[in-house]
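Support request, please re-run this one:
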Amino acid sequence: CVIFTYLFGELYMNFKLLAIDLDGTLLNDNKEISLFNYEALEYAANKGIILVPCTGRAVNGITKYGRLAQLSTYAIAYNGAMIINLKSNEIIYHCPMDKKDAFYIINRGIAYDTNICIWSSNKLYCNVINDYTLSYSKISGIAPEKFNSLADFENKIITKVLWHDSEEKIAKYLKEMSSTVSKSVCCCTSKPWFLEFFNIKASKALALDMLNTALNIKKSEVIAFGDELNDVSLIRYAGTGIAMANARKEVKQCADIITSSNNDNGVAQIIHKLI
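Re-run finished. Output below.
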């Protein structure tokens, strides 16, 4: 207990930025940000701490939480494939997929008869409009458009491809696709029912490092929160990496601290302890 208190005391004055995953971390299972978490974020912002949502979501999936967007100047979307200034809507950085890689993944998804969601120019395209794709579009905060074939994307830039299916199927697809996709593609889950594909050069950690360089912030001055496999790079990168109690085992293993769950205001608890 003494060591724990001493650690927090030593770190207390050094933090300048909070990098926070959304689903399963800042958001509870009802996809809401609790009043307790909002109050903690406002407290941190008033102390001069920079808040950066870091999510696999598209930009609309961040800005739908208006109060969060007001507290944040920058956001990292699409698992690090995009950095955006939320105040000006300026895209600071974009790392899209290679068209051949994206087309291969889309074709495999069609062969698997799974539900395919494609992000291009911050618009959502799906191969089918059903309960799976509609539930994903609700999270994303944007209505889906049905695409008919790969020809629809010949002149479009693809940021990310996502498959949405049962947990059992996604686990199977993850194992199979991890060994077959190009080395230039990152293939990981953001939830047990979401399999995401994006440029290997894009990650939450790389995007945050670029932002930190621009803002003259050191890794040691960053606290990062997460719960899923796509948060591992972020948690490893940060000076202080926080895993939620509901996080996957692999995420907890690389974290410095494990906080309470997303349903028990784990983010707010750490903010009050460290800041």
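Residues 99-112 form the longest helix (14 residues). Residues 168 and 193 are 8 Å apart (CA to CA).
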